[in-house]
Amino acid sequence: MSGRRVLVTGAGSGLGRELAIVYAARGDRVAVVDQYADRAEETVRLLAGGGHLALVADVGSDAAMAALRAQVQGAWGGLDVLVNNAGIACGGECAHTTMAEWQRALNINLMGVVRGVREFVPMMEAQGRGLVVNVASFAGLAGAPGLGAYGVSKAGVVALSEGLRGELLPKGIGVSVLCPSFFRTRLLESFQGARDAPLRHIAEKLMDKSPIDAATVARYTVEQSERGRFLLLPHRDTRLRWWLKRWLPGVYFREVMKYVARNARRVG
């Protein structure tokens, strides 16, 4: 199916940009949404075809997301695919993460998805068709020490997607949730706090060592969500870890703690 109206948040760089490129290559019109106008416009210039939109919105703001809905409604009269991709990075131990960081992570990573759902799913319900793709993380499926507010916010996206899937299936609307592991993006630009610099260093190393890049994740996401798959795990190793956590949780936990100990020694 081509010629659809697709909206991607956080599409000014990284995975969001690659998703926009994939959809445009399929013949879709893409609303490229980013917090920064220059990044959104740069992405639009990279897209095949025409009819694309460069829009500015902060997913952490109720008013901004309501204004975004009005813009899309005015330009297109509806929406066929919603990709809630925008998010931020953070980390640290749960008991030592500041309340400000908890609120920031939950407001953007989780409530940003909630805002996207509230503003755009009613358009799809009125049409009787559509697709929602929520970007979470493997951290939302299999929490580990040091993920703090990030892991909790992404777990919330997974739970939201599970409930939404059941609600929207009878209405002709599909739902997928993407749970990738590390790959190279600009996500760490949003990382704040000197306390967790070692964690950022580890994340950077894991990103550099990833066997897949953002373009690969984007292609996988579009292909699998179009096929109706709900849980999207683009990394082969995370598919194996997810199986291990589900069926042998004790073994999984011991392996996680061994991994944490190894990284702690490397950081010093």
Shape: globular
CA-atom Rg in angstroms: 18 Å
Percent range of helical residues: 40-55%
Sheet bearing the most strands, described? Answer: 7 strands, parallel
Number of strands: 7
The CATH architecture can be given as 3-Layer(aba) Sandwich
Task: Let me know the average pLDDT.
Answer: 89
CATH topology: Rossmann fold
Task: Kindly estimate the percentage of residues that lie in beta strands according to DSSP.
Answer: 5-15%
Report how far the terminal alpha carbons are from each other.
52 Å
CATH homologous superfamily annotation:
NAD(P)-binding Rossmann-like Domain
| Total count of domains | 1
CATH class: Alpha Beta
Please report the number of helical segments.
9
Low-pLDDT segments, ≥5 res:
none
Q: Looking across the biggest beta sheet, what order are the strands in?
A: 3-2-1-4-5-6-7
